[in-house]
Each structure stands twice: as structure tokens, then as C-alpha cells.
Design brief:
This protein has two helices and 13 strands; from the N terminus they run E-E-H-E-E-E-H-E-E-E-E-E-E-E-E. By secondary structure, the protein is of the alpha+beta class. The protein binds N-(carboxycarbonyl)-S-(naphthalen-2-ylmethyl)-L-cysteine and fe (iii) ion (FE).
């Protein structure tokens, strides 16, 4: 059964381009759309060298989100814990270098939100298929919390959960769609966050999945 809202899917989004979620957190609507083609071509290159894989948590659970990395450091999880590592455990080789299109977009988005010296060395690439989710967590494996995090959403829309500094704080739901970029830093850097289970849907280019690029300075 189709609904009126389906008629609007795929049309350019109207309304404010930038939304402030907190003192250091901004949603830049459609910010990466102009770079869509170069981002997707670059993504293909990375994934051909370092394929998506389902990592295992220290507790022994297979993550529903499939992941890979590019840049000088990559986020990895296994039975021994979480860490950033220069080596892809699957290949035994360095992670693919961060494509210029990725790096330049991350820098420009951070600057747009007021973070002028963002120096990303890690890009975690998350792939969500229907039902995949990320439970509420903080990003605290990085060395310098003074550096922001930049997140680029591609493909099927999703809902971010944006919480507070305590796990029990109430969460706000923030819809993110193809091309949206979110920047989190300053006093918002350590807020709890997560992603609700992806709904069954189809994106004209990416099919039934959502890809998120998360840029960080890890080292
Ligand atoms: C809110 N990934 O990989 S970053 C992750 O959609 C992760 O896959 C999200 O959370 C995803 O760790 C995109 C969302 C994010 C990152 C950092 C934050 C939200 C944040 C820091 C503070 C508050
Ligand atoms: Fe996170």
C-alpha cells in the first residue's frame, strides 16, 4: 500500500540546510550530494581492497552492521576488545588510503560547523542492511576529544538517536537521509548516540542499504 509521503521520496529536500542539534552539533542537509559520484567511485575502490565484514564484539556478538575502514588508522573489534589499528586484520595489509574526495568533504563539513583544524586520519565505513542497528554508545577510543567527528549518510534513510552525556539521558531522534552530513564536537563530542534498526527500503543508487562514513582523528 503506497502512502502520500512516498510521492516525496527522491525529490530534493526543502527546508533549512543546517540544523543545530547542540552547542557543537550540526546537521548539514544534503551537504555531500554534489560529491555523490566521486564519493561512490572512491568507496568502490576502498571496498575492493578492504571488503565489508561483520566484526565481533568483545562480548562475542557478531555486529549487525558490516564495516571496513580507510585512512592510516581503522577501527576494529574482536574478542580482545576495540581499538584503532593501522593494519586490516583480514588482509594483514595497511588499510586503503583515505581518498581525496573523502578527506576534502570531511574537512569542508567540519569547517562549515566551525571546526577549522579537523585532521581526520581514520574513516570507518558502516554498511546497514534492513534490521541492522547500532546500540547507544559513546565514541571514546580516540586520543583527542577536542577533534570533532564527521558523519556522511548515503543510501536508505535512517534515524540517529542523539542522547546526553549519561546513558540514561533522554534521546532525540534525528532522521538522516542520502547526502546529509552531521558534525559533532566540542561539548557534544562525548554524547551517547546510536542508530535505530534500518527499515526495509530501496535507494535508487545503493539499493536496500545505508552506508555511513565516519571521519575521526583517532591517533
Ligand atoms: C553523537 N556511526 O560508527 S556517527 C559509529 O550512522 C557511529 O553509522 C554512526 O556512531 C552511523 O560509532 C554515524 C554518529 C555519531 C558519531 C559521534 C557522535 C553521533 C555522535 C558524537 C557525539 C554525539
Ligand atoms: Fe559512534
Amino acid at each position: 500500500m503506497w502512502m502520500i509521503k512516498d510521492l516525496f521520496e527522491g525529490l530534493p529536500q526543502v527546508g533549512p540546510r543546517e540544523e543545530q542539534l547542540g552547542p557543537g552539533a550540526w546537521v548539514l542537509r544534503a551537504f555531500s550530494l554534489a560529491d555523490e559520484a566521486s564519493l561512490l567511485a572512491s568507496l568502490e575502490g576502498v571496498v575492493s581492497q578492504a571488503p565489508f565484514r561483520h566484526m565481533v564484539t568483545p562480548g562475542g556478538y557478531r555486529m549487525s552492521v558490516a564495516m571496513t575502514n580507510c585512512g592510516s588508522l581503522g577501527w576494529v573489534s574482536d574478542r580482545t576488545g576495540y581499538r584503532y589499528d593501522a593494519i586490516d586484520p583480514l588482509s594483514g595489509l595497511a588499510w586503503p588510503r583515505m581518498p581525496d574526495a573523502f578527506f576534502n568533504l570531511a574537512k569542508t563539513a567540519a569547517a562549515e560547523a566551525g571546526f577549522n583544524d579537523f585532521d581526520p586520519d581514520a574513516c570507518l565505513i558502516n554498511r546497514y542492511e534492513p534490521g541492522a542497528k547500532l546500540s547507544l554508545h559513546q565514541d571514546r577510543d580516540e586520543r583527542d576529544y577536542g577533534q570533532p567527528i564527521v558523519s556522511v549518510s548515503l543510501g536508505v534513510p535512517a534515524v540517529f538517536l542523539f542522547g546526553g552525556l549519561k546513558r540514561s539521558d533522554r534521546t532525540e531522534r534525528v532522521p538522516v537521509r542520502h547526502g546529509d552530513v552531521v558534525v559533532w564536537g566540542g561539548p557534544d563530542r562525548l554524547r551517547y548516540h546510536g542508530v535505530l534498526p534500518l527499515k526495509e527500503d530501496q535507494h535508487p543508487v545503493l539499493g536496500r542499504c545505508r552506508i555511513n562514513l565516519t571521519f575521526r582523528k583517532a591517533g
